[in-house]
Amino acid sequence: MGLLAHKGAMVPVAAAARLTLARSASAAAAASSSSSAVPPGAAPPSSGAGSTTAATTGGQKQSSATPPPPPPPPPPPHLTAAGFASQPAMKTAAATQHQVTVSAAQDLSSSEYQNVDGLRYDDGRYATFVESIRDTIVPPERIITDAVRTYAYGTDASFYRLVPKIVVKVHNEDEVSQILVQANKHQTPVTFRAAGTSLSGQAVTDSVLMKLSHTGDHFRNYTIHGNGEQITVEPGLIGGEINRLLAAHRRTCGHEQQYKIGPDPSSIDSCMIGGIIANNSSGMCCGVSQNTYHTLKDMRIVLLDGAVLDTADEASRASFMKSHAHLVSGVVDLATRIQADEELAALIRRKYSIKCTTGYSLNALVDFPPSDPIEIIKRLMIGSEGTLGFISQATINTVPEYDNKASAFVVFPTVKDGAGAASVLRKTTMVDAVELFDTASLRECEGNARMRELVPSIVGCDEGTTALLIECRGKDKAALDKRIAEVVRAIKEADHINVTGNDVEAYPFSEDKDVFNVYWDVRKGLIPIVGAARETGTSMLIEDVACDVDKLGDMMEDLIEMFKRHKYHDASCFGHALEGNLHLVFSQGFRNDEEIERYSQMMQELCEIVADKYGGSLKAEHSTGRNVAPFVEMEWGSKAYNLMWELKRLFDPHGILNPGVILNEDEDVHKKALKASPPADAIVDRCIECGFCESNCPSRDLSLTPRQRITVYREMSRLRAMDASELTVEDAQRLREFETNWTYNGEQTCAADGMCQEKCPVKINTGELIKSIRSRNLAEGHATELRAADFAARNWGTLDRLVPTGLGIATAAASVLGDGVLTSVSKALNSVSGGWVPVWNNYMPTGAKSAHFEVATNASSPAPAAAELPPVEAIYLMACPARTMGPARGDEGAGGRSVPQVLRSLADKADVDLKLMPNATSLCCGLAFSSRGLQAAAESKGDEMVDALVKATDNGRIPVVCDTSPCMAHIQMSAMAKSPSMQFLEPVEFTQRILAPRLDFSNPRNEPVAIHVPCSSKKLGKEAAFGDLVSKCCNGTAPVSSGIPCCGMAGDRGLRYPQLTASSLQHLKLPDNIKDGYSTSRTCEISLSNHSGKHFRSVLYLVDEVTTPKKSSSASA
Ligand SMILES: Cc1cc2nc3c(=O)[nH]c(=O)nc-3n(C[C@H](O)[C@H](O)[C@H](O)COP(=O)(O)OP(=O)(O)OC[C@H]3O[C@@H](n4cnc5c(N)ncnc54)[C@H](O)[C@@H]3O)c2cc1C
Ligand code: SF4
Ligand code: SF4
Q1: Pick from 401, 48, 97: nearest CA to 250
Q2: Which residues contact 35 (CB under 8 A, 6 or more apart)?
Q3: Residue 827 belongs to a domain
Q4: N or C: at which end does the chain have fewer Cβ atoms within 10 angstroms?
């Protein structure tokens, strides 16, 4: 089997450099043996003398001993270090507790450090820990201790908040290994964080958070093996990204079969493989058989003592068996005991026949012989939530992804009918996915017009109505048809199942994407709908339970009745029925004791229904976390529960690895450290803190992510809203610290591009919040800036004429003095002006040369027809960047021409009557003002432009062409509000719709080029069209995408805060064979050129280069 290796996920397969991920046997052995020099410090498992409680085994009550508390940690050395020495231990902890959590009664009477949430005071050990890792292991800038960013990192998608004392951004396995040694030595617990989309409180801590994501290109390497049947990945790759890499691999190598990773959580485009493995996440299609447990091949694991086990490496395995004999024999002993206990082994097998992520993966201890402890350890890591070790690499067996698929949306009159049908399908067919919707969910679907049209029986449906969204897939069309027929027959033949309307064929399977995407989109939208509709100040909760599919209908009825009794009127219930897995989504406030008590009672009852009554799983796929840690014993029974404690102590005797998660002796832990959701601003109040937006944000590696901006802003709003009499000195100081830190991290480094909205399930644009804050800030005390903006708006034409001259002088100066001088001078000016003066770089534009266009009049008439095509006219909206900024110095490919000159050339070639708007040079869409928060000036310029457009286009009759996508996107909305028939064309659409039919692509490039689709074009849905056009220009060769969601330029912000584009574009890796790149925004092109070293210019240059006037109609056929 061939081995293809790639470095850097953003690099397309064809261009990726060879990377050796798997270390050689000798290196691994060296790692193992060198780390074995560090004493494991593992005390033998405790013999179990503890208190006795009533518990259950497999639903049977029994009496047994609960595990004793872990042995106390050795007293920490009381050393001090800068940043911590000055903080009295008690004050820090008390402040944290008071500020950030609404918690049920918590014992803060003790000032002694205890390894439980809320009592991990800084008694000196954290200072010592920092001292031990700073400079020697990680540089100081990757150790975060300030109040604001630690608060921001305290947020995951769960409804728990714990604020880490220290956040360490880790870059590689060696760092993790060395840090773990120090954490173990100084007894400072650590929690790993991938994407932080966990829902059960397993990715938060009040101790040390080790963040492996949003730290550049680290932990993002991968190797695709053979045709894609296997892939080796590092933990920071996003699940969806891995699937895209596999798809690109197939495209490039021409393999017949497409592969994907088995686990398919609905969060797959945001969560990372480290989190997917550590949570054993799954989703709609993977079921039990394709989750990580069943698809993992190998793993590299970093243990608490810093040792690295590479399960793929014989030498590493052998060395580990010797160096970790105590751990290995403990695992062997556990497996032997469990396998000898038939009842327990049967319970474990039964529990994993359905989805289960409650507790540790005990199936590892029954599925493999005790003689194979490495295989057992590897599988135990799955679903261990960072409590047994760190996963630094995994090799996964992928599963086939079939192109042939079809879905049907079938409605049933009752819960029992719907759930019963799911059971029949599971037992008698090879169906691929069955998603269930309860009546509350169907009421949400009714809001979708296409759904009402496609499935009319959901409209006004009776209480109890249940629907199944069924998907079949096939290797080929024949296989697909066979599966569909099987499903239809199974439902028809099941006498006890009624279908609404009595005819299952009234709900046909559709292979049409436009139809089945409607079904799947409403399914994916169910969580956000509840999230968006909830009362301000409440959180959205998602419980995740499972039972044997035969019992699903009964369990669902009980749960719906329970929610009604506890007055959760917005609760809805839906999920992966094929696996007996239901998600229960509802809103919950944690604002006072009554709300917490209501939650507590409901949780207790929910657990009793699911675990006791139906023998089900309290966490089917979201993992235990803190949320169901107190109920693990209820679900599993005392025997299995005690074995889990033994297991934990074998790997982590002192509770250093994510303590309190999965197993927790505090029976109230699920109702402590609850996250308040204070109102902050209507723009962001619906935020569910899921974190889906983070990977799209250009400032994610630099300052804050959108989720973190919202989190921090919520906390500032809470503090600001406090009555002066309530505000303590500490609160006031904290607010000041937040406000100071916010200016740079929250406000200045937000590009306000709104790419966060593209991934947000409740469609929040954090950039809008930031723009409104900028606007408020300016109104509150920046009269000079406002006056300057007003002056600029009124004299735009004059300024516009000055810019090309200024750029001409600057580029001339740069050629004489060198770019270095200009860069240094501009950096100094940028610094003293507080980021108002742009920083010079080597790719700054020259002044743009003007092009001649006739000015449009209302009475304009179409030009004569080109060839046999009808006449075409268009109005040219020449955006400020294109008319002022010419090509960069040294950009041979641009031939010294400006974008307007290129457009002139294209219009002439295609015989398109392109007329300029009257007063073009004094007009501006207003984007330059709006992104700075200069709202009044933005609105006045925008209005002026819209009025001019309405006139010039004859009230929308003539299309408008704009050379710059962001400017067009900005003006389009307001223009269309005034004249709904207005048609806007950005460069790609203009080329495809108007120019292309009138041109021959007779001189195509025979090589790939790079493209960067600006955020605005992505939002307009032009990404695919951009790729198609460039491919056409390159003789069918697909372009190499920058892979950057947003470059961070945002008008000129990236020039004023160059660290923003530098941070975003550190992910830009273009293969060596790429000579140049194309985009549709001049300022973005500057930053892309600057960070890739290759000239980026408007895509119009490429179109002009490869086209000639059309010869005849036959040529176009
Ligand atoms: C709206 C929404 C929908 C969701 N839908 C689903 C769904 O359909 N199915 C599903 O299963 N889940 C779902 N989830 C939950 C969550 O997205 C998944 O559990 C996901 O796999 C978590 O990955 P992450 O990268 O966010 O991990 P994180 O949350 O960062 O971490 C998860 C756990 O893994 C540990 N960890 C992280 N990296 C490592 C490592 N390298 N080594 C060891 N431990 C590590 C962490 O300490 C933590 O305990 C959903 C979440 C949201 C918000
Ligand atoms: S802004 Fe949207 S995507 Fe981001 S955390 Fe909030 S809800 Fe999730
Ligand atoms: S607007 Fe852009 S920079 Fe600002 S939070 Fe959203 S994605 Fe990040």
Answers
A1: 401
A2: 177, 181, 305, 306, 307, 308, 323
A3: no
A4: C
pLDDT at 74: 38
Burial tier of 462 (Cβ tally within 10 Å: 0-12, 13-18, 19+): exposed
Q: How confident is the model at residue 836 (pLDDT cuts 50, 70, 90)?
A: low
* Distance of alpha carbon 9 from the chain centroid: 15
Compute the distance from residue 1018 Cα to the ligand 3 centre, in Å.
Answer: 15
Length of the chain: 1117
Query: Worst-scoring range by mean pLDDT, 61-70, 327-336, 760-769, 1043-1052?
Result: 61-70
Boundaries of domain holding 1088: 845-850+871-1109
Higher pLDDT, 830 or 877: 877
Q: In 3-state terms, what secondary structure has residue 308?
A: strand
Q: Is residue 594 part of a domain?
A: yes
User: Per-residue pLDDT tens for 1027-1050?
Assistant: 999 999 999 999 999 999 999 988
DSSP strand pairing (845-847 vs 885-888): antiparallel
Q: How many angstroms separate the CA atoms of 334 and 376, rounded?
A: 10
**Which of 622, 640, 669 is the last residue in one of the domains?**
622
Same domain membership, residue 705 and residue 591: no
317-342 pLDDT, tens per residue?
999 999 999 999 999 999 999 999 99
- Count: domains in the chain: 3
For residue 1037, the tally of other CB atoms under 10 A from its CB is: 16
DSSP characters over 75-129: PPP----TTTTTS-HHHHHHHHHHHH-B-SS------S--SSTT----SSHHHHH
Q: How confident is the model at residue 524 (pLDDT cuts 50, 70, 90)?
A: confident
Please tell me if the CB atom of residue 911 comes closer than 6 angstroms to any atom of ligand 2.
Answer: no
Average pLDDT over residues 409-425: 97
Residues in the ligand 3 pocket, defined by CB under 6 Å: 696-699, 706, 709, 750-756, 766-767, 770, 1046
Residue whose token pair is 């890796």: 1069
Burial of 431 (0-12, 13-18, 19+ CB in 10 A): buried
Tell me the per-residue pLDDT of 609-631, one tens digit each, with 9 for 90 and over.
999 999 999 999 999 999 999 99
Can you give the pLDDT at residue 953? 87
Does the structure show a pLDDT above 80 at 741?
yes
Mutation to probe ligand 3, out of 766, 932, 1049, 1065 (largest number of atoms < 8 A from CB)? 766
Q: How far apart are the CA of 162 and the centre of ligand 2, in A?
A: 19
Token digits of residue 826: 């501009």
Most distant pair of Cα atoms in the chain: their distance: 96
Q: What is the mean pLDDT of residues 492-520?
A: 94
Strands 1096-1098 and 1077-1079 come out as: parallel
Residue in 203, 106, 206, 91 with CA at minimum distance from that of residue 151: 206
| pLDDT higher than threshold 90 for residue 936 | no
Name the token pair of 596: 């917490």
Ligand 1 neighbours (beta carbon < 6 A): 156-157, 191-199, 202-203, 212, 235, 265-267, 271-272, 274-276, 278-279, 281-283, 385-386, 390-391, 527, 621-622, 658, 690
In this structure, which residue's CA is closest to atom 5 in ligand 2?
A: 689
> Strand, coil or helix: what is 57?
strand
Q: Which amino acid is at 33?
A: S
Report the CATH number that the domain containing residue 421 is assigned in CATH: 3.40.462.10
Let me know if residue 31 belongs to a domain.
Answer: no
Substitution site in 199, 269, 527, 690 for ligand 2 pocket (most atoms within 8 Å of beta carbon) = 690
- pLDDT for position 807: 61
Task: Share the mean pLDDT of the chain.
Answer: 85
**How far, in Å, CA of 979 to CA of 737, rounded?**
47
Residue 1094's SS3 state is coil
**Has residue 152 got a pLDDT over 70?**
yes
Which residue CA neighbors atom 18 of ligand 1 most closely? 198
